[in-house]
Design goal:
about 130 residues; 10 strands; alpha+beta; ATP Synthase, domain 1
Length: about 130
């Protein structure tokens, strides 16, 4: 669903595996790129970059929206931009740190489970060799 809007806007869609978290036309996007913080205005050169866990800031008509994202990808091509992320939480300026901690905690738990699964698989493979 594309939102029609004024010229000199960026159409932004933020999507997780479960839902569309944000869809709309915006004036400015600040995002937590893996290589460092990145700002995007209308007319930005085509770009694809990886995201790290952090806060995505959107400004439209003087209103600021904050969305915590848990890793993913950002793409801008022409007037359209997309964020594909594992998880996204709309938050406010008072809860930015809390939101990032929540996203990192969930990611850390997932990593721990993955590491434990690897160790169990290696142990089972070792037992099969006996």
């Amino acid at each position: 669903m594309e939102v029609k809007g004024k010229e000199n806007k960026i159409f932004l869609s933020i999507i997780t595996p479960e839902e569309k978290v944000f869809v709309g036309n915006v004036d400015f996007i600040s995002l937590p790129a893996k290589s460092g913080s990145m700002g995007v205005l209308p007319g930005h050169i085509p770009t694809v970059t990886r995201l790290k866990t952090g806060i995505l800031k959107i400004i439209n008509d003087g209103t600021t929206t904050y969305i915590g994202v848990c890793r993913g990808y950002f793409e801008i091509m022409g007037t359209k931009a997309y964020v594909l992320t594992e998880r996204a939480i709309i938050t406010d300026v008072e809860n930015l740190e809390k939101t990032v901690l929540e996203l990192k905690k969930k990611h850390d738990i997932t990593q721990e489970i993955t590491e434990d699964t690897k160790r169990v698989s290696q142990a089972v493979a070792g037992l099969k060799k006996l």
